[in-house]
Each structure stands twice: as C-alpha cells, then as structure tokens.
Automatic annotation (TrEMBL):
SUPFAM superfamilies: Sialidases. This is Secretion system C-terminal sorting domain-containing protein. Residues 236-310 form the Secretion system C-terminal sorting domain. It comes from the Bacteria. It holds the Pfam family Por_Secre_tail. The keyword Nucleus does not apply. Keywords: Signal. InterPro entries: Secre_tail (IPR026444), Sialidase_sf (IPR036278).
Amino acid sequence: MAVGPDGVLHIVGVSNGEMKLISSSNAQQPGSEIVWDQVTTIDLGGVLNVTPPVNPQGLMGQAWVDVDQNTGDIYVLASVTRNDESGDPSDVMFARSSDGGASFSPPVRVNTDPGTEAYQWFGTMSVAPNGRIDAVWLDTRDADNQIDSVLYYSYSEDGGLSWETEEAISPSFDPSIGYPQQNKMGDYFDMVSDDEAAHLAWVNTINGGQDVYYSRISPQILSSPRVLPGLTRLDIYPNPFSDRLHVDLDLDEPSTTSIKVYNLLGQEVTSIIDAELSGIQKLVWNAGDQVAGLYLVEISINGIKEVRKVLLQ
C-alpha cells in the first residue's frame, strides 16, 4: 500500500491469478465511504507463487507498490515465477506507471544472474525522497542445493529504467532450519528508504534459528567492482560493440577460469573459455550471429563470480 503526492491511495495484490493495482482518490477524506476509482492489471512477466521448494509452506514473496513523491510515478515489484520461455522459477520483476496507474510499462528483470534455475525470492522495494528505488531479495544463485540463500541489493536512480548490478550483502544461510516442524520461513520483510540509505527489517537463520534483523544499506556499497582473486586486470571492450567483444585478463597464478555469455532471459549464449589459465590472456567473442541487445558476461575465477553488462549494437 502506498499514497501518492496527490493523496491517492494505491494497493497492489492478486485477483483471479492476475496482478492488480486498485486506487482510491477519496480514501484521504475522513469519514467518507471509500470508492475505488481505478483497477489496473499489471504484467510482471510471471505469477506470484506460493509453496515453492525453497519455502515449502510459505510464500515466494509479496507484491510491493510505492510512489515517487516528486514525479507521482507508481512502481510495482515482486518475486514471480516466469511465464515466458525462460521458465525461471523466480525472478525479481519491476514495472512502472507514469499516468497515475492507468497503464504500466513492460516488466523489467532486476536480478541479472545467468541461468534460469535460481530463486530470487522475498523481493522487497522502497523509494527514497530523492527518487532512488531500492530493491532487495534472497537469492540462491550460489547454492548447489538451490536452498541456501544470500541477501542481494540493487538500486535505480532513473525510475527503474536501469538498475545497478546487484551485490550480495549478507552471509549465506540455510532457510530450511526448523523444517519440517515449521515448514516455511515467514516473509517478515519491510523496507523504508531515506536519501542516504535503505532501512530493512528482514528474516534469516544466520544465528541458527529464524530471527528478524535490521540492516542499513547504503547505495555506495555497489560503487566498487568486485575483486576477483588472482586477477590483476580485466578489460572488456569495446562496449557497446558491433561484432567482436574482447576480454583481456591478467592472472598472477594458475586459476580455474570460466567466461560465459547469457541473454537477459538467463539463457547461456556461449562459453568463451572454461580452462585452467595463468598470465595474460586475450579472448574474443564473435557475436556476429547474435541479435542486438544487452548481454551478461559472467567471469568466474576459482568459483568467485562477477557479471558485466555489454551492449551488442
């Protein structure tokens, strides 16, 4: 639930399997009989699911709505099971409305992990007074069992048109602690943003049981690229590119090295290298047979991963 700068109340939820936004312009008037002036169907590219394997008797997450108090733009975010060809069990998806909720933009995938098997669950959103949109979620991308989860964070400063590459900001934990006596982890998530940081209440099992924590999350944590062990240089160029993408590495010791390219559906497009490497390496991806668009280059050094975005024109 959120209130816009014009006093209009907006609530988001699911009705008959569809995501809906309902709005009331007179809920702000004391003693009035509330009238719901507008009901809008929202396409988030998937469905809000329940009882997923990662949370057997619980939720994948809840739907969130918030409003930019400067522009009046309405934002909706949720962890959804994709209904497209990717078949991803759970992505964090976002849509915006610039016309008071009468219509919404096509959905945008916030998480950029390659592959289509990880769960991005308990997606949560809030908007700062300066218009920055903060988003967090639990993520199983680094877990072999697709259960152990890590808190990830991203933000947008252009109304959700683009998002900073997300980063893990918590230790990994096992949400199944307590199953099956308590065969779920409760969605005790809520977040409020100010101009300096996001303030998050969230649940995890880091201490060996289900506890609710508070975290203050500053956007500056995403300002520095992840340092991959043994890698002294990484250049990916040109970007944007039109045919051939160059990847230059300098490894100061022998390292298990994998570089893969994925599309925005999380589907692997190609593997540039998967080998034990050391020293200076100059690699090339010939993308002449690929359609123009945004791609994700995943660099893995001894199991530690970094993802870079590249644009094929």
